[in-house]
Please model this.
Amino acid sequence: MKSLFTSICPWRPTRLALVSLAFSLTGSALIGIAIILVGDFDETEMRVLGTAGALAGFSVLSLPSIFHLEKARYTYLTWTGISASLVFLAMLLFVIWGENAIGGEAFMKTLASVGVVAFATNHICLMLIATPTKFFISICQRATILIIGTVGVLILIAIWTEDMPEMMVRFFGALGVLDALGTITVPILVRMFRTR
Model:
């Protein structure tokens, strides 16, 4: 079944994102080389380089959500990931190009919070790309998704309270290790136990 998005846009969103990524990375590299070889390292050159880097980062960050958008899966999660990524990019560009227009601590906390939501949502979308066929692997995938969400919430609490007790820091560290473990092992297990 085709999604509404696919019927409106005949091109594949993942292909567009990959092309954007390739152009962003190529542009960043060329700009970086030009700045290093002949540039003055002035403020405008640094802003242009930062903008190219932000666009490349956005392309990489939003790929998992765009993948699910194309497949018409996890609609709310997908749109949350894309929206958070776009807002994060817009805020970064505002920081890069704004002439001392940053709204202080509240703006930076909001920027960090939107970044956490964008990263966590797209990380969850990345984990959902793998489709496990074994119950145990599916449990591992769901546990990793729960851990990603918990880590995101803990980071948001730390951003806004500016305080994290030592026990919470230890708990956060343990969850980070489990997050990395699940992120690496679930796709490997899905590949190993794939039915032919």
In short: Residues 28 and 52 are 5 Å apart (CA to CA). The mean pLDDT is 83.
